[in-house]
Amino acid sequence: MKSLFDRTRVYAVAGEGSVSAEGADGIVVSLADNGSLALKDGCGYDDFDALCRANAQTDAEILLYIPTLDEEQRKLLAHCAIRNAMWDRILFVSAAHKTLDALKAEYPEARISPVCDDNMVRPWIYAAYMGAPAYLMDAKEILLDADAWGSPTVDRAHNANVCIFAIGADDEDTVKALVRV
Question: I need a surface site. Which of 80, 115, 122, 156 has the fewest CB within 10 A?
Fold first, then answer.
């Protein structure tokens, strides 16, 4: 029988100079509004292409947070992913549901996921409707909504047959509390 820890996956947060998820299951990266990776010295889509190239020969996944993107920006991202054979290992994550809708319409095979924030009401319903593989939210938010028997947010997402990835756990106590939830 698997324990909760057997189902836990570890994602590295890409930082300055970090282009691989060595020792981790994947990488979490953000794309800034101007199209650059939100790394300290990120400078454009070339950075994302380099990140894909660096991880193409590994099993690592990339959780890519994207802001509102226009058609040309979505095409650049898709081409980076496809060219480096990373398409099926990238999860495009956004709080901008119109960007996710457009990405899914243009690339039906794209893996997408909504982020819970003030722009999206009941994102687990949207995730289920879009066939999204995951529903991401800040780890602290899950814990704020949790009680001794489990989190209502977690329950609502699971009832909609949506898996939750919690990001933002930056200390051991938060991680332990998330596992309990």
Answer: 122
- What does pLDDT average to in each consecutive run of 10 residues of the chain (181 residues)? 54 62 75 60 63 83 86 88 91 86 92 72 74 69 67 74 71 74 66
Pull the structure tokens for residue 19: 């282009």
Tokens of 130: 């879009």
Largest Cα separation within the chain, whole Å, is 47
Please check whether residue 166 is in contact with residue 137, taking contact to mean a CB–CB distance below 8 angstroms.
Answer: yes
> Could you tell me which of 169, 172, 146, 170 has the C-alpha nearest to residue 157?
146
Give the predicted TM-score (pTM) of the model. Answer: 0.75
Q: What Å distances lie between residue 55 and 48, 51, 66, CA to CA?
A: 11, 6, 19
Residue type at position 20: S
In 3-state terms, what secondary structure has residue 131?
Answer: coil
CA distance 181 to 144: 11
**Whether 153 contacts 119, CB under 8 Å:** no
CA dist 89 and 110 (Å) reads 10
> What is the signed CA dihedral for 155, 25, 47, 165, rounded to 10 degrees?
0
Helix (H) or strand (E) holding 138: strand 135-138
